[in-house]
Amino acid sequence: MIDNSDQVVEEHHGIPRWVTAAIVILAIISIAGLGLAWHNSTELQQAQQAFSGQMKTAADNSSQQVAALEQKLTQANATSNGLQSDLGVVEKRLRVTQSDLKKARDEEAKIKEENAQKLAQIDQIDTDVKNQLATKASTDDLNAVNGSVNNVKTDLEGTKSDLKMARSELGTLIARNHEEIDVLRRMGERDYVEFTVSGKNKPQKVGSITVELRSVDTKRNKFTVALTVDDTRTEKRDRTVDEPVVFYPRGSHQADEFVVNSVAKDKISGYISMPKNPQPATTAAASGG
After folding, report:
1. What is the span of the domain harbouring residue 159?
2. What predicted TM-score, i.e. pTM, was given to this entire model?
3. What domain count does the chain have?
């Protein structure tokens, strides 16, 4: 009995080597698994963080885009409302314009009709007047008209006769007052410059010449003047009213005429007549007229 007990004790104290090796291997595997699990966990956390960041960025971008779209939508709505309001105003104005146009056309038609009626009335009145004039016309009326025409002709002939009588030595008509100067001016044959010289011995520019009054004899209607033409001074003594003084400007063979129509104390009035288109000449002279 004692021998069997010792054998059992020996069997319990002897652990196989493969068990120990297995335990070591299992421990190594466990440690490796823990390390791998820890590594995977770290990568997973990093991936989660990266994904969360991307999701946050995407969410921010989406929010900004949504906000921009909402702002554009708001602006589009405001523009649409404004256009609708403007369209409403245009429609109202269009209705008013069409109404005014219809009213204007109606008034135009009415005016045309009234004008047509008035023209018809005027034509009728004109016809009636002509008929009345034709009925009332008499020989006495015609004789009166003829007499008036004859009187006008007589006056015209008298005027022509007066004008023919007032001619200078050059054959030009001599005006005796402002009215006749206007008549000659309208005839257009010569140019006329009217003047009034006041005060003795006071040279005054008249047209292209200088006039200096030397003396006046109001009782005899005579005067004495000094004319300076192209720097040449010539004195004309005891000239009579309406008597032309003829002189030739330098470079022209057509004469100008100096005429005094009225005299008063230390004053003369008249005009100078000049040809419309003076013809140049190689020599010039002054005439005592």
Report:
1. 147-289
2. 0.43
3. 2
